[in-house]
Design a protein that fits this description.
253 residues, mainly beta, Rieske Iron-sulfur Protein, 2 domains, four-stranded antiparallel β-sheet, four-stranded mixed β-sheet
């Protein structure tokens, strides 16, 4: 309902917890732990009521991408298969995150409740980056507070990573090599792969610092990150309108 895919370690104050679904609020699932009966938000891992109110489960870094891309990066991964006994219960949710109630595709939406956004936090600043802008600007480059960043959306249209553009005392400006799906530093020509490591050029072997970005629906990010602002793309310059020359009179008239 909120399109988050967060992963948390179910341990708080040295106690390992188990959870069950008890309800929904703000289009976000609420879980109850079996030990204290506290209720927790799925989007944040924070307990909102009960003896553990205010506690937060440690978050484990995760990302959303096609399985084939994940296995390229992590070929020794184990694959967690769906439980056949639960298939019927989840069948009605097929395609849920791919649609909006008004029929518009969420990843193409802009400024609406059901748009996809990537939320990024750097220092004390947080910002929602609309998926439509990330897709249009490849690569999207911005400054969040004093942190210059770049969001690299891959050719599959779903895998993305966020990077700090500062390296060796400089702020890099990137262009996208669409054929090889690499970020290329404009100044040195060094190309960076999806792992953030330069594969050639003067910066070969250097690694960019990863920034965590969370993909979810816009309404969810605004609810749980109320102090965050929203990225607005720079308006593209429109050419000055050309005034057509006056029509010449027909000398034969």
């Amino acid at each position: 309902m909120c399109r988050t895919g967060r992963v948390f370690r179910p341990e708080v104050e040295g106690r390992r917890l188990s959870f069950s679904l008890v309800g929904v609020q703000y289009y976000n699932a609420i879980f109850e732990d079996d030990a204290t009966r506290s209720w927790w938000y799925q989007a944040t891992g924070v307990a909102i009521t009960g003896p553990m109110k205010g506690q937060k489960m440690p978050e484990i870094p995760s990302e959303i991408m096609p399985l084939r891309q994940w296995l390229i990066l992590h070929p020794d991964s184990l694959i967690f298969l769906p439980d056949p006994a639960s298939e019927e219960g989840y069948a009605h949710l097929d395609g849920y995150s791919e649609r909006r109630w008004d029929g518009e595709e969420p990843r193409r939406a802009d400024g609406e409740m059901w748009e996809w956004v990537v939320g990024v936090t750097a220092g004390s600043r947080s910002r929602a980056y609309p998926w439509s802008a990330i897709d249009a600007e490849r690569p999207l480059q911005d400054e969040l507070g004093d942190v210059p960043l770049v969001i690299h959306l891959r050719e599959d249209g779903i895998s993305f990573r966020c990077w700090d553009r500062r390296l060796q005392g400089k702020t890099l400006e990137f262009r996208l090599d669409e054929e090889q799906d690499l970020l290329v530093d404009v100044e040195t020509g060094s190309a960076f792969g999806f792992d953030g490591v330069a594969v050639n050029g003067p910066l070969e072997g250097s690694r960019l610092r990863r920034l965590e970005g969370a993909l979810e629906f816009g309404h969810s990010y605004r609810r749980f990150q109320p102090d965050a602002d929203r990225y607005e793309a720079e308006p593209t310059e429109q050419p000055e309108p050309v005034t057509p020359p006056p029509e010449l009179e027909n000398p034969d008239d």
